[in-house]
Amino acid sequence: MIMVNNNGGSGAWKEMHHAAWNGFTATDLVFPTFLFVVGVSLVFSTEARLRRGAAPRHLAWHMLTRAVVLFVFGIVVNNFPYFHWVHMRFYGVLQRIAICYLIVGVFYLWDRRVWTKVVLLFITLIGYWILVRWVPVPGAGMPVRDVHFLDKDQNMVAWVDRQLMPGHLYEDSPAHDARDPEGLLSDIPAIGTTLLGLLGGLWLSAQRSVKSKTLGLVAGAAACLATGYLWSIWFPLNKKMWTSSYVLVAAGWSLAIFALAYWAMEQRGWGRKGWSKGLAWPWLVFGSNAITGYMISELLAGGFFAIHFADGGRRVNPLFYANHHFFTFITDPGWRAFAYSVSYTFVCFLPVWVLYRRKIFIKI
Questions:
Q1: Considering only CA atoms, which of 202, 192, 191 is closest in space to residue 224?
Q2: pLDDT attached to residue 174
Q3: Res. 316 pLDDT band, cuts 50 70 90
Q4: Burial of 190 by CB count in 10 Å (0-12 exposed, 13-18 middle, 19+ buried)?
Q5: What is the pLDDT of residue 265?
Q6: How far apart, in whole angstroms, are the C-alpha atoms of residue 258 and residue 37?
Q7: DSSP string spanning 344-359?
Q8: What 8-state DSSP symbol labels residue 314?
Q9: Where are the alpha helices (DSSP H) in the chain?
Q10: Could you give the CA distance from residue 149 to residue 199 in angstroms, rounded to a whole number?
């Protein structure tokens, strides 16, 4: 997330950018994997606290509190350092994580049966497809018949956001109608992403062999990828609208990566010995304070963007200056942007590493 949000600009490789509209790049996998991991971790954290004697009502209250804090953090990240009310953005990454975490977490706390999660998954994915395909868009008409299906501006998701949050959306300019990639209605399929992670967590928490668990993750990845890519023929992959096919494809790749990591760490034991333990260390450090690392990266960038000074007759900010002066020895634009991205991520790693060394783990 830190790398793609600070990818070095237009010269970065295609896979370091989000797809402009329909399509799928490696960058489009980052955010849904966050939600997928939220679903997985919900199973283990909830069950562990219940075993320690926590009352379900206390867990539900904690989930609500955590969701509110995450939502507020998201508003801070979006609007730092100016906080202009007239254009303040209320949707966002942390806000979506908060909403999906709360809804899926409370549902799991209330009912831990697997089949109910599968039913809700079908409702979110198929219901969202019906919503954007078969419900007329006010002022535009029926998708496919009167307006292009998944038209950038004339779709039900964007229309609802324009009614609820005029002037407060991420993509808001005179060149086109406003829209937001983390809008209200697209939270529906995002809940499906979290549910798929929850189902993965339920699979791992069951009493079965490590090998069986690995094979199950692989089978789940294959099923999601096959179904998602097939569905994308009629319901295109689209991160900004979080289409149902995108949910399945992203979850399929998340499951595939998860299966590989699980096989390496749990089945082969690579995370506990030799060189492989060293490779796992940076991910352990970042993962121990993941939200803190993300907040640092966003607030640091926001602060730097607010600073301007003259450079060669133009006004620039420190990040622009660093990108165009410290990496000029790299002639290839893709590698130059990648070097900048890695360097910025390393800067954000340092305070998280200090926290890890001091055994400080900031939790909500």
A1: 192
A2: 57
A3: confident
A4: buried
A5: 86
A6: 9
A7: HHHHHHHHHHHHHHTT
A8: E
A9: 2-5, 30-51, 56-79, 93-110, 114-134, 156-164, 187-205, 210-231, 244-262, 274-288, 290-305, 318-325, 333-357
A10: 31
